[in-house]
Amino acid sequence: MAMRVDSIETGALEQARPRRLQLLRQLARKKIAIVALVWIVIFYGAGFFAPLVAPHDPNRQELSVEARLQSPSGEHLLGTDRLGRDILSRVIYAARTTMLFTLIVTLSGSLFVGLGLGLLAGYRGGWVDAAIMRVGEVLAGIPGLLIILAISAAFRPRINDAAFWLKDNSFLGDDARPIVFFLVIVAATILFSWVGSARIVRSQVLAIREQEYVLAAEALGASTWRLLLRHVLPGVLPIFLVGLSGGMAGIAGTEMALSWLGLGVDPSTPSFGSLLFEARGVRTFQEFPHLLLGAGIPVVLFFFAWNLLGDALVDLAEPRTRGR
Amino acid sequence: MGLGLAGYLVRRLLWAVPVLIAVSMLVFLALRFTPGDPVDTLLGNRYDEELAAQLRARYGYDQPIPVQYVKYVQNLLQGDLGVSTKHVDFSVAEVILPKIRVSAAMGIMAVVVGFGLGIPIGVFAARRRGSFLDPLTIGSWLLLDSIPVFVVVPWAMWLFALTLGWVNLSYGGVFHPNIILPVLLISLPGVAGVARIMRASIIQVMGEDYLRTARAKGLREWTVVTRHLMRNALLPMITVIGLALPGIFAGALFTELLFGIPGVGREYLEALLARDYDVVLALVLFGSALFVFANIAVDMAYGFIDPRVRVGAARETG
Amino acid sequence: MSNRTLGLMMGGVVLLIVAVAIVFVFVVAGGDGGDDDTAPVSTDPTATTDPTAVTDPTESPAGDGDAASTPAATEAARGDGERVSGICGENRLITFGSDPATVLDPIQVGDADTAVYVTEIFGGLVTLDLDLNVQPDIAERWEVSDDGMVYTFFLRDDAVFHNGRRVTAEDFKYSFERAADPANFSPTARDYLGNIAGVLDKLGGSADEVRGVRVIDESTLRIELLRPISYFLQELTYTVAFVVDREQVEDDPRGWTRNPVGTGPFRLKSWRPLEELVLVPHERYHLGPPKLDEVVFQLGGGSLLTRFENDEIHVSPVPATELPGVLSGESDLSDLYRPAPQLSLSYLGMNVNEPPFDDPLVRQAFALAINREAINEALYFNAFLVADGIVPPTMPGYAADVSSYPYDPERAAELLARSRYAGNMPRITLTYSGSGGDPPDTLQAYLQQWRDALGVEVELEAIEWAAYLRELRRGTMQMYGAGWIADYPDPENFIGKLFGGDSETNHTGYASERVDALLREAAILGDNERRYQLYREAEQIVIDDAPVIPTFWGIDHYLVRDCVLNWPDVGTIVPKYRHIEIDTTRE
Fold first, then answer.
1. Alpha-carbon distance A52 to A46, whole Å?
2. Domain spanning B97-273: which superfamily?
3. Is C301 on the interface with B (CB under 8 A)?
4. Predicted-complex ipTM score
């Protein structure tokens, strides 16, 4: 993960032309992309329906020598952990954490903020463009994980009071604390996640603006927003999705890394980070490989699926490397 | 291009100043905002109001935050990074320099490994384009890219140290053979990225018109390859090298933790938890400066290698 | 693509790699060479010995060092047997350690991590042996006045600093006054030296010297106390009472701790933060020089157990989570397991001034509802010691007849039902200090047991050490997981420091007049048996009032290679490495 390189930004994409849903149709022809997509859907579906799908209560302990650290069996498909909790259920609930995190970050950060600012910068130009891009440059120019760590460490203790207030004074009740903790890392991650998509969108807007049909619409006096919605947005979307799918693994990985370090979600919320933290010992792996594999394999497949999907999309979106 | 490039360089370097100021302010505020300060950690169970007040006065934490920040910047400009409160009485420079050296060595080794493997694999895949080997090579490296460090490290330690007995795990310095396993684990995911870009880049360049034209003109193959193909196919690689190095600095945290390597990531985390204000700030600034300058260097390199990129204009407008 | 093209491309790639490699060599190798020159704390004795402190050649080295352990003899003995390869082939102990959290200055040490090294490098008037009894160190013997107020120490004439200079009473006076100097910010001087007449005055700035410490002659030191204190000698074994070399400190007030000159059995050879710290013997150590050639503390952490299995280190800690795997008997590591009982206690503290723990019934119910034995068995293969009281069994004055609450869920539920908070239990948060993704297993298990027995939901909250300490001090935490490690082996260190009404380290808000009265009475008693009896009574009162739930007594779990001889199973920080040696003929 350290050297993750965003191939979206290496230039070839900037010439891409609007192809709208064509991209999705082409994607459907790639078998590997379909397999990847299926796994992502399963993963997110399991997370979404966690309370229905999980065979056990993920936090229910069974504290006895026999019940703990069981190898996979019919009763516990992925075995049990040190406190005798069902690992499959914990993995499913961890998938829920991942699902919520990636969705919220991409929807609010990449989609809402990134797309919005990208469109604005590309379309308005001038000082708006300069301001947005300079801020983006600042954020892209600093090591994100380091800053996210600092922010998370700084805000966690503060946030407790707020969380308790919410718990007593809002409908959230017992969920208030996990939610507030969650929002801290979401906010910290969003701070960095919008830049990439805003850049992509902006460069697309700049390219599309030169297209004849947009120029024509402009000449006919179409309003800015109408123009953006009707002409520019559809052209931008496919390429935007490509960028997004490439970034998903990174976003999910941020949450896991933070939780592994104990700076992520509330400890009562199962997360792949804490599951893998529990399984980090070499001897633990030697004797109870199911702890690491049970949580690790779904995660690896999840990242792999996004990577494959991203790769397939890039392949389709790059006219110059395709089909020659 | 000469003057334009120099002017551009100056502009970019000047631009780094507000970036670093913004970052330092952000982190400075976040740290001061955090409950618990270095004096809390320092005194621990022996906390005594009077003593704590004296210590805070000594370190200047009793002053208003803006004053503290201005003082910090003043010292910084004089080359004084401050003192560590976790490693008492060590200056920040003394604390972080050895760590930076370790991380730099590991990062560079990882880049060498990453490119040494990634480029041939990318070329290989590009050459076998269309056959099943192409997706297989790229696919298998994509898979490697998908394995988080904290999943692969326990497994790799078990396999290579316990089961096969090929390696030892003690940290014996950057040039000790024990460093091989952590370096490989850091660099392998990067191989995928390099291979992908190399492959795409070659395929793209091979189809360019100027290459055909050059061949059609009857230029020698050597000239075609060095003048046109290599120059253009390796262009994206510069970006990757430039941008990968600082990434490795920040990203090796887990490897450092699990292997007990005294690198920048671990120092940063420990400093953060101990509220070692000056060390945290120095590392953040260092990391950010590295990012910023790597970006500038990449752009400059572009300008030299590919005359088509008019640096200044390209950046200002598009 | 033609083969020729491809070949040329590969050539280009090779060139690129070579270029990167060259840059690498310049940047890193060059830098690393410099690193060696400026190794942070190289302590070459020839370079640092003060020329004025020339060793007196007539002074016999280390009077009571037995002949067999002098280096030459050890060397000869080693020649007899076949030396094995690997880490057991050298008389060099490779163990693990934590990075010192403070400088290696005896008066600055307040943490166990640093104390480990400081107790080996420095020494004081008295020391602790491996059974935690007070023994002579630099003071050969001492006399106590009948009223218990005046201690007269007679110093040995063969105790020397690492640079060969003899230790005199003047050095001790300087060291005590240095510790009490408010400009030095010692975090421990008040606690451990505060009973000496004049120390508090100097700390408060109202005196220039410590009037209670007087030099009678070169080798006689008299210390006067404010009041008779029965555990005064124990206090003197703490690092803040150690002697430092005045010349060195005054020559380089800020840098001397990088290269400290002490009187302890070991000298600091090198220290690279987060990497390793190396100690080498002080050959003229007055209690017998160390047998090892070197002690290497690896500070990096990370997979120590694996490195142990891989024959890279002699000693490894066993993390609690690995205990079942190591002890189950299936592993060949179980033969190497060496538990060392600590003078420590893990407990759950409760704020007795805040609901619901202001009701003793609630506190008792919570104590009765946890099943520590089940946790010990299921999670740790019974390797921990369930705390059946507060003062640990290895402590002098341990009371076997004091016992904490047994597991009794029915009675727990009954007590809770009788409490003020039956049916309207407020929110309860259990705070602990920690980093890492997964909360401690024990805490998670208590949560489940409270849920089962009492029907009460308790939430876990992790905060970082710095913030934890601050909240602890302010007494804001409702319930917290905590631990206490004894600073000196006396029950007072537990009962007085944790539960005394005016103790600064009493964070539960607990105050009992009866306990305070017992503590006051015990503090000035000369008769240890009677004194221990009073602490026992106080301990039982505390347990009945239940401001804390004692959970486990600490045990250090070590794995030690067979070739390490005389490894002491002591979990308290005492000078211990001088006893150890490596059998180089044995795997």
1. 9
2. MetI-like (1.10.3720.10)
3. yes
4. 0.80
